[in-house]
Amino acid sequence: MTTTTTPTAASTVTDPTAVYSAPAGRRRSRTPIGRVLLYVALVALAVVYIYPFLINIATSFKTDAEATADPLSLIPQTWTAQAYETVFFNSAFPRWFANSALVTVVVTIGRVLFDSAAGYALARLTFPGRGVLFAGIIGVMAVPGVVLLIPKFLVLNQLGMYDGYSGLIIPLVADAAGVFIMKNFFESIPVAVEEAARIDGASTLRLFWSVVLPMARPALVTIFILSFQGSWNELSHFIVASQNPDLFTLTKGVASLASGQLGAGTQYPVRLAAAVVMTVPVAVLFVIFQRRITNSAAGAVKE
Amino acid sequence: MTSATVRTSGRRPRGGGIRRGQTAAGLLFTAPAVILLLVFLVVPILMALWVSVSDWGGRGSPFSGAVNFVGLKNYAAITSGGGLAESDFGTSLRNNFWYVLLVVPLQTALALLLASLVNTRILRGRGFFRTAFYFPSVTSSVAITVLWFFLFNPSGAVNALLGLIGIKGPNWPADADGVLHGLLGLVGLKTAPGFLASSGFLGITWWDWLAGPSVGMLIIISLAIFTTSGTFMLLFIAALQNLSQEVEEAAMVDGASAWQRFRLVTLPQLRPTLFTVLTLGLIGTWQVFDQVYTGSKGDPGKTTLTPAYLSYQAGFINQQWGQAAAIAFILFAIIVVLTVFQRWVLRERGVSKRRMRRGGFTPGDDGRYRAADRTLTAAAIAGGVADRRGSGGNL
Fold it and tell me: What's the pTM value of the predicted model, to 2 decimals?
């Protein structure tokens, strides 16, 4: 990776993410007008991508009437936290939030453990059936989620897991893509350390827990991010796994608000306040792991 | 590189007794993940396959004695019954077809544009722009659908914007008129020519197939483009950063303009990524569910009904479980065909990977993902992301 910039270029680069090796003089190949047009285009596009979220936040502080009377303004004429009061104190929202948190935490722990164990075994251990298992996991990865809506309900129903926390959580722990990512990662790190520990007589389980997992931190963080975001934002599985309102997660609950469980009126501010609150955890995750998310989503798990 | 040493240290023990006990460990380590995948992915598919050829009505176990094998009756009902089930299925395929036709090219083009702009060599605020464009991709499909339907409500932000330039916007979520029908109407073709109205496919006349996406569907189409372009932008950025600068510099020396360099030098080199993005888009767009469930429930006038949502509706609302499973399998077939097509075109990479290994490279000899693995992983993750955008599927 070229992380150097030539001195002349570096002197003008303030953005730490600019890691290109640009030959000096390249800058001059762009005309000033071209530069201006570039920034105009970028800023215009950024406005298009950001403004909807600003409207979202602003509207959640407006009154019902103002939400539709002045939909473009970012500053409410009469500030009100009424929508948030409704969300937090006069709806099942806190319950949904707790359910989402529970599901997300358990699913994420489960995926990190099981994905890394399976990925390690497939990458490093020799045992009969390994090739078949890996081929199966690749095959399963291709199964599209929506096709499983009806099938998953059938199995949960058959197993008596429908309408319970086990049905919400356990199926989501199954994660072929995560196993695939972990296997790839373990194949990418040198085997020498493990061999040394193995010669010293460490058991496979011990070796995995105290030698392999600590080395796998970058990939585990990737699994953590994907899993957190995936289960927090999951909707379709919860739809087919339960119907009891006590088991609603945020996604399912807010979707039910959207399809008019609020009674009279459109109540856009309430819906949008709910949307804001449910976005916060993912946004925080995004801010903390920003660079890694943008890297891992592009597939480059480095370090 | 250190490949030679890594290789010997990696291979020597294979013959020795050091790896005893690995069979037990291997099975133990893989068991949780494999059992979960079997029980919640493989078994469900087999069970749904049975339900799709049975008359199970939703009560009791589908394996009980009261449930009968009915052959392909459920499949026949949705593909040739002549009833509502058939026309609903045809309508959902039509809707999804227009959705795919608009979303895939537009999201790809927009992602490429964003990547090219963000990847400009000297750029202030690169991180900011990249974050801004990618953020919609990580937010929940439910939250963003709620927002989008607010923006598109008759007195919402979109119509307010249109009002600023003197256009009276439509009642987006309630307007079932086909966009293509509207355009044809502008050139005077207001009613169906006889030959298009008299025959059709899957219970829908050819004229209705040609309706185009409805105005209501445009809400979901724009939403999909908004949320997926950031993900695919990252794939394009990764690809752009891997391109050699020498070729471009040579073109620059030859006096090629920026546009010429992009079209004749950069774009041809991006072909593999372009292809990946297009097929991932094709696979993801056939799975629209969350947005329909949250936002439109198939309205207006069934014009946002998609096969995925129809399958849910047939089972959970109409208790037609056999038909619901049959719809799921037909959708599965469509997506499998697209996936196989993708794997088939991308298979060359697999070959070169094997060659690399034969040539003496052990996996990960430089402590990083190799290019082939990186691409595969990228495709896997982005596939999952696209999948989730489209469906809330399980990555």
Answer: 0.81
